[in-house]
Prior knowledge:
It contains seven helices and five strands, in the order H-H-E-H-E-H-E-H-E-E-H-H. By secondary structure, it is α/β, with parallel strands linked by helices. Strands 3-2-1-4-5 form a five-stranded mixed sheet, sandwiched between helices. Keywords: ATP synthesis, Cell membrane, CF(1), Hydrogen ion transport, Ion transport, Membrane, Transport. It is found in: Cell membrane; Membrane.
Amino acid sequence: MASLKDLRNRINSVKATRKITKAMQMVAAAKLRRAQEAAEAARPYAVRMDTVLANLARAVTDTNSASPLLVGTGKSDVHLLIMMTASRGLCGGFNTNIAKLVRVHARKLLSEGKQVKIIAVGRKGAENLRRDFGQHIIERIDMSGMKFVGFEKAAEIGDKVMAMFEAGEFDVATMFFSEFKSVISQQPTALQLIPAHIPETDGSEKSSLGDAVYEYEPEEDAILDYLLKRNISTQIFRGLLENAASEQGARMSAMDSATRNATEMIDALTITYNRQRQAQITKELIEIISGAEAL
């Protein structure tokens, strides 16, 4: 059984830990608001980009001359997986859930005889997959030095992906990130970037425009080719923003849970300390009384 001094030291240690977790929870809450606003502000632009691409893609009649970013290379032998995680831990299962989705997808592709290449955006993702898929990780991008997510970083990653695609280093590119739902809910998501994922439309937008006819300058193919390249960076930027909000939400929840667990541990240790102290006092009183009666 631990001594009273050991119990006091442990209680003080847990109290210090609780102060740290509480402070991290407050910092995450402050960062979450800004990150959530940025993620929510980027969603309409990304959705509208998908709609414009869908409309232009339907106007392309000759698939043979269409951009490979839209129709693909005609094969799917080499897959590029862009995994977005945090560069720091202490955020619950945020990093683990994304890495798990990538691991399942990669194993499925390898079982089908495909070749897999991984770009790890964020240090924790690469560490999580280092043992099983370390040989498949071709590049690591550390985001720990960035205080705010900017489009410049997304464009830099997008340019690397485009350069690899133009060099024929892969056929299909898929991005993995965590979509922010709420503080307590973040959904690991896979989004295909190349060939571009064109969402299905129900025709409601077309009917709302009546019988309007649009003329494009330059031609639809030129506009589509530009937007497809732009869409790579746009979707990567959206993924980075969603990840930033999800990370802070997960860290806030994890630190709140850690703070509550520390409080429960302090209460339990305090009860144990009081009981042991009371038992020791009672024992000393019995010894004093027994000694007095003996005299």
